[in-house]
Amino acid sequence: MCRRLVINAGLKEVVIRRTATAFDVVDVADWVAEDDLLAPRDADAILDRQ
Question: For the chain, how many structural domains are there in total?
Fold first, then answer.
């Protein structure tokens, strides 16, 4: 499943099944913090490339 879909759904946690008996719980807020699309952009650098 796409991380963006999970973020937009407003879920707080995702449980991922790794094996028949092993599961991981992931905090969706960590995905938001790592999202490069939400990073502030340097407007001057963007304009310089054009």
Answer: 1
Amino acid in position 45: A
Q: What is the pTM of this model?
A: 0.58
HEC letters along 4-30: HHHHHHCCCEEEEECCCCCEEEEEHHH
Q: In the chain, how many H helices and how many E strands?
A: 3, 2
Domain range for 20? 3-49
Query: Per-residue pLDDT for the chain (50 aa), expressed as one digit of tens each?
Result: 788 888 889 999 999 999 999 999 999 998 888 776 666 666 666 556 55
The span from the CA of 38 to the CA of 42, in Å, is: 12
